Amino acid sequence: MTPSNAVGTVYLVGAGPGDPELLTRKAERLLRQTDVILHDRLVSPEILAIAGPRPRRVYVGKRCGDHHVPQRRTEELLVHFARQGLNVVRLKGGDPFIFGRGGEELDALRAAGIPAEVVPGVTAALGCAAAARIPLTHRHHARSVLFLTGQDRTGCTPSDWAAYTRRDRTLVMYMGLAPLAAFCRELCRRGLPPDWPVAVIAEGTTSHQREVRGTLADIAERVRDANLPSPALALIGKVVAGADSDLPAVAIRERQVASGVPLPID
Known about the structure:
Residues 9-219 form the Tetrapyrrole methylase domain. Its EC number is 2.1.1.107. Keywords: Cobalamin biosynthesis, Lyase, Methyltransferase, Multifunctional enzyme, Oxidoreductase, Porphyrin biosynthesis, S-adenosyl-L-methionine, Transferase. There is one protein chain. The protein is α/β, with parallel strands linked by helices. The chain has two domains: 10-122, Tetrapyrrole methylase, N-terminal domain (Cobalt-precorrin-4 Transmethylase, domain 1, 3-Layer(aba) Sandwich), CATH 3.40.1010; 125-252, Methyltransferase, Cobalt-precorrin-4 Transmethylase, Domain 2. The chain is 27% helix and 20% strand. The protein has helices spanning 25-33, 45-49, 71-83, 102-112, 124-131, 161-164, 180-189, 219-226, 238-241, and strands spanning 10-14, 36-39, 56-59, 88-92, 116-119, 144-149, 169-174, 197-202, 210-215, 232-236, 250-252. A six-stranded mixed sheet has the order 6-7-10-8-9-11, with helices on both faces. A five-stranded parallel sheet has the order 3-2-4-1-5, with helices on both faces. Strand 8 (197-202) and strand 9 (210-215) form a beta hairpin. The radius of gyration is 20 Å and the shape is elongated.
């Protein structure tokens, strides 16, 4: 515990994509030593349980269209607890600096004079792709990978379509359910073929992981029929076509995460 007359430190910690075993050793240590945890809705109870009973837990979750705790209030809470002399873990699903608002929170902490440290986590793109056995890069198919969101903070769709229609690139679209249909239509309109491969993964790396495979032409309908939960990640590119081609269009992966038993390799 930090002395009461001192300022605490805030740790912006990545919780990874869901599987507790993908948490870093440093993140695990900080969870057990901290005074307060501010956590998102994507952080599983299994990961929170690692902290034990000692830390105070504060929920600051958001979902698309429903900011349960506004971002400014989250930043105020970080500063408030640190000024009480408490060490704080700001626990985020995935990685703090990949669509996690970690940059905004770091700016707020710097402005308030609060010591801060960033602890990276396995971002959803890496975790979900690995769990689905989809290589994001491939010597013959994808020389680069691009992370993006389907909409910007104002609700607008992307404008740099030339970057998204390269055929030697894998696209990874975060928070991709709502804009999926419009995004796929626009990719086709801009030059990608309708049969371009797409995979959408929900609850990746967890025991509830579900995958839907299809093409730009039919993936939105397949996803609607499968009733995938949000958030979900869309992977678009040639690398999808070669991944687990024996799986059905809608697959439910039984991953024995909690027991520690590895996923069988075909």
